[in-house]
Design brief:
With about 220 residues, the chain is of the alpha+beta class. It has two domains: about 5-175, Hypothetical Protein Pfu-838710-001 (Beta Barrel), CATH 2.40.320.10; about 180-215. It is built from six helices and nine strands; from the N terminus they run βαβαββββαβββααα. About 20% of the residues are buried.
Length: about 220
């Protein structure tokens, strides 16, 4: 039996509410409102799956669990890769089984995801620790038609995974977070804000001393 293929693109979202309105205008319905989602990637010692471009993921979406394997993808205008997944009744038991088999968590990422459908494909809206991002998944031509209807130019298509986007964000921000979780990323932002306030205080003190009569 041929492995089902996942074909998708991502794009950055400036205004989730405005995008929701566009989806309604084009006949989409919200199948699942924004729901907390936690994803854990597992790998073998030496990161054997990552080195092969594969992925094993345990996802908790609300109170539902799902185990997914993704094969190495092919990149073009869209991202395409083989995907096998199954519902899991007990996520904690599955985690224990994977660890017993020699797998261990390698990366965790979370987001709040809303799912929209029009009968042909899916559009998901993600609020993540590194920004708001949408995914369009379906047949290639449908993806392009939907993106055009939503005002998304093909030049703005993103085919990177969330892990790749997170590590790009880390390099850009010099954040030391190890996982794409709200707690770790918010901790970084709080530290950055504290450092900025401290720097401004020092600058004000220095400026006031420079302008004082004694400094002259």
């Amino acid at each position: 039996m041929a492995t089902p293929q996942e074909v998708e693109i991502k794009f950055l979202v400036a205004d989730l509410k405005a995008l929701e309105e566009k989806l309604r205008q084009h006949g989409f319905r919200c199948e699942t409102p924004s729901t907390h989602e936690v994803n854990t990637l597992y790998d073998l010692p030496g990161q054997k799956l990552r080195r092969k471009g594969e992925l094993l993921r345990l996802r908790c979406y609300g109170d539902k669990w799902k185990l997914t394997h993704k094969a190495k993808g092919t990149m073009g205008r869209h991202k395409s890769r083989g995907e096998l997944e199954t519902a899991v009744s007990d996520g904690k038991a599955m985690d224990a089984m994977l660890r017993t088999l020699g797998y261990s968590p390698s990366f965790i990422y979370e987001k709040f995801r809303a799912e929209w459908k029009d009968g042909e494909g899916n559009v998901v809206l993600d609020h993540t620790p590194i920004g708001d991002i949408a995914e369009i998944e379906g047949r290639p031509r449908w993806i392009d038609r939907t993106a055009y209807a939503l005002g998304v130019n093909s030049g703005n298509y993103i085919t990177k995974s969330y892990a790749e986007l997170f590590f790009d964000w880390k390099r850009k921000t010099k954040c030391k977070a190890m996982n794409m979780t709200f707690r770790e990323c918010e901790e970084y932002r709080r530290n950055e804000a504290a450092q900025t306030r401290s720097s401004r205080r020092c600058q004000r003190i220095f400026s006031s001393r420079q302008s004082s009569p004694r400094a002259r």
